[in-house]
Amino acid sequence: MNAPLTGAAPDAVAAELPAHLPAHLPAYQPLLANAPTPEQLARTAPLPSFSAEAMAMVDGLAGVLMRSPQVRAYPELVALGFWMRKANLERLRLELERRRGDALLVPRGTVFHIAPSNVDTIFVYSWFLSLLSGNCNIVRLSSKPSAQAEVLVGAIGELLARPEHAAIAARTLLLRYPADDRVTARLSAACDVRVIWGGDGTVRQVRAIGLPPTATEVAFSNKYSLALLHAARWTAAPAAERDALALAFYNDAYWFDQMACSSPRLVLWLGSEDAGRAAAADFWPRVEAVIAARHQRLSDIDYVNKLLAQDGLAIEHGGQVMATANNDLARTWLAQPALHVGHHCGAGLFFESALPDLDALRPLLNRTVQTLSYAGVQRDELRAWVAAAPLAGIDRMVPFGHALDFGPVWDGFDLLRVFMREVSIG
């Protein structure tokens, strides 16, 4: 059952609601004690960008995560703690200073973040980039049970209860509620920026809900990602290097059961088909060894969905699906490379093909392709390829092991700039 609204009496809350919203709305569940209401946040002055208060809060949570024995069971939380350390925050600040030059940037005000259900930690990255920009924040977490999210919320609650973080607590509303357009409308009415992390259906549903005329929005909808390996260079690499790359690929694909938008689903071998198949015969056993040593069992529904996807792919497109005995890893070689999005369910299902050269990748690209993770291909080669002609897709290219690394530029949006506005003085 939802907890009651906090921060104001019901009559006072109703009096603050925009005229187009009903006076009595279903309660959301605030996740922090003494949380402000959306209307209170809308009236609260933002902080300067990279304020001492925001830096202390983010670095404080990093310390809690890095010291917690409980967190060690969740590598994505360890990575989050590493991202939030003070040295990285300072790097972000300096990079913003460099990129904005003489531009005068100020916080937009209040940012409403709608977090996805498939990546438990994304709400913290989105919230903290906005917090570092100086904004007040409303963060809707998924109602889907998640041990990682509960660990994070507990740690955040403990920190924000401390007097030294009172300024951040007064500017933060973390909450949950079942899908309800009326609650979303109320939260949207209080914001200056709305950030939608979710599938295409979520984006369409939320976009149908109005924003204040002065507010803006950015949406991160369904995206799909690729892995690119140079076949001949893979075969020639030392065995220890191939083992390290297999582990890096596993981290990219399996941390969120392959459901992160940046996790690879299509594996492409650069070279002839014979060279690709030969390299694949060495690559996949190394990945299987990592899975056997490190991966916890998938859920029963994941195994069932993967079997259905494999059967559908075989019926409609032909080709043999090869899977490990326990079906933790399944792959199929495609004569013609394609995403086959409709047949993909995550959980360790990979499509595979060969490309004679980089230009053969261009016809596959569209705006739904997000990350290209690569091994055996040089950064300069990729830069020259991108510079030669505009790409219809791909927002980022990273070496194996970095597909899940979060940065302030995501899906082509510079979030620090999205969360700030520029004031011009003539």
Automatic annotation (TrEMBL):
Pfam families in UniProt: LuxC (PF05893)
Keywords noted in UniProt: NADP
Origin superkingdom: Bacteria
Designated name of the protein: Long-chain-fatty-acyl-CoA reductase
Organism expressing this protein natively: Duganella lactea
